[in-house]
Amino acid sequence: MKWSKNANGTPRAKARLVVRGFNDIDGLNGELPTASPTTSRLSRSLLLSISSCLHWKAWAADIATAFLQGLPQERSLWLKLPAQGLEILSISPNTRIFLKKPIYGQIDAPKRWYLEALRHLESLNWKRHQLDPCYFMLYDENVFKGDFPKLVSILIVHVDDMLAAGDKSSATYVKAKHKLKEVFNFKIWQNEI
Length: 193
Hints:
- With 193 residues, this protein is α+β, with helices and mostly antiparallel strands.
- The chain has a domain at 34-67 and 109-190: Alpha-Beta Plaits (2-Layer Sandwich).
- It is 27% helix and 30% strand.
- It is built from five helices and ten strands.
- The protein has a six-stranded antiparallel beta sheet, with helices on both faces. It has a two-stranded antiparallel ribbon with strand order 1-2. The chain has a two-stranded antiparallel ribbon with strand order 4-5.
- The mean pLDDT is 91.
């Protein structure tokens, strides 16, 4: 828990429940796949270089509570609350919480979030690059450059952050950008960075 301030200067408590994933029996026994990709600096540089050459404006976004937007649990996980949480909620020390979604500290939470993000992006016609699983391209299938559809946007995912740029004159890109805001719950969205 930490203290921050509201816009008017009054104090505001900010807390996040974090599990002790390092104690996860399935993880300790090596029975739980946890590997989750992150984008490379090369991919970020490539996105920025291409967007600069094509005069695209970049935007950045942070997904709010990304792990809670991940795939539902496949395991039955029960969580014991810390003493402070029990006290605040005025509940019995024997109370347990059943986890339906991954949360911070859970060692497979990043992987479950990535798989859900991948599912959503692919359903919106973003194509994953073969060399970087966090680098996505969007093409306009109605406009061709030679034998290939026209590239209208590039997006990279780095854990719970997105960086993208695209052709503002492309209806495909504008629609895809709007759909992203429908599919994901963004905490921060910065246009034209």
